[in-house]
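Q: What would this chain look like folded?
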Amino acid sequence: MTDIVLKFNEAQQAVDELNAEAAKLEELTAEEGALVDQIAGSEWTGSGEGSWEQRQREWQKESVEESAALRRLVQAVEAAHGLMKDTESQVSGLFN
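A: My prediction, written as structure tokens:
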């Protein structure tokens, strides 16, 4: 029989690290967005204006999607960690 070793501390560390990275990503995205807004605030005219606006919409959409994907990953890891702890508790309760 294979022994299964659950490392709850390591799982919690992974959750904490993912949460920290998600917060950093959101902060960087906001900072970049503010910088881009400064550039976009200048008066663009001509053929470059439409291309610039399209790229900005794409960038904004992708940054929102990336942030949302990371948050979903954090939620999934948190849920898995919670299930691991609950299962461990239930199994140990069978032998007490």
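Residues 47-94 form the longest helix (48 residues).
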